[in-house]
Amino acid sequence: MKKNVVLVVNPVSGGVDKTEFIDATTLFAIKENLNLILYTTSGDDDVSKIKVLYEQHNPERIIIAGGDGTIKMVAEAIEGKDVILGILPAGSSNGLAVDLDLMKTLDENLEIAFHNEFIELDTIVINNQKCLHLSDLGLNAELVKNYEKSNKRGKWGYFLQIVNTLMDLGEPFEAVITIDDQIIECEARMIVVANSKKYGTGIIINPEGVMYDGKFELVILKNLDLMIFGEIIMGNVPLNHKDIEIVSANKATIKTNVPVSFQVDGEYCGMETELRISVSPHKIKVAIPGFAQ
């Protein structure tokens, strides 16, 4: 009896036609003598529908053609299930794929998605929201908000919003961070909750990050001037700077004196004054190239 594999396709992610992804995955499944079930997301309760699909077909793998948001949606649907996710990067935000070294050709990614070893990826829970990659309070979240509101996409649109965000930069916010018995009080421009090393743009923000170590890092960017912020956003992070502090934890609370912009895995989530952060007991199996945990 053929084993089942589900292909989840987000038709609108990244503004890319997914026909090539569907055709190539279908041919690959035929070659491997697998039964492929296609699910196309609609934005209408996709999590529940993917849960039902999993119960119906009990797939050994779920292949995802989409970006960070699609991966997170599927991860939520299969939480606690023994299934491996294969990623075909096809989103406007592919931060997780960048960190997992999956920005390759479609043929290469199919080989990885169907064949390779996997890691058991940590899931971070922030105010009851799942985070697989990077979330933050402050400057970058403001940039994400501005980019989502703008009608210009691509690198030029992103650069314009960098300029706009820096020009509108207000006062730093005050934060009280509690990790076990440790309390950190500081002014900050940005606090990153990092499960991984770098943003989808390739910027390394957390050089010691390991996505399966049962911990996350808080990267606290304090009173930095605009030149330093510009370097960070353009990819040159001065991590030895006196106003950058990195601490590891498996549980933490952040409280701010004013509402601060907040984003999770590249999606703007509004303004927050408190983040409650913990590592979920559930891990997600994700296929990656040339690695055995």
Please tell me about this protein's structure.
- Helix 2 (about 45-55) packs across helix 3 and helix 6 (about 140-150) packs across helix 7 (about 155-165).
- Helix 3 links the parallel strand 3 (about 60-65) and strand 4 (about 85-90).
- The model has no long low-confidence stretch (mean pLDDT about 85).
- The strands form two sheets. Strands 6, 7, 8, 9, 10, 11, 12, 13, 14 and 15 form a ten-stranded antiparallel β-sheet that branches. The chain has a six-stranded mixed β-sheet with strand order 2-1-3-4-16-5, sandwiched between helices.
- With about 290 residues, the protein is α+β, with helices and mostly antiparallel strands.
- The chain is built from eight helices and 16 strands.
- The chain has helices at about 20-30, 45-55, 70-75, 95-100, 105-115, 140-150, 155-165, 225-235; strands at about 5-10, 35-40, 60-65, 85-90, 120, 125, 130, 135-140, 175-180, 180-190, 190-195, 215-220, 245-250, 250-265, 265-280, 285.
- Helix content is about 30%, strand content about 35%.
In short:
By secondary structure, this protein is α+β, with helices and mostly antiparallel strands.
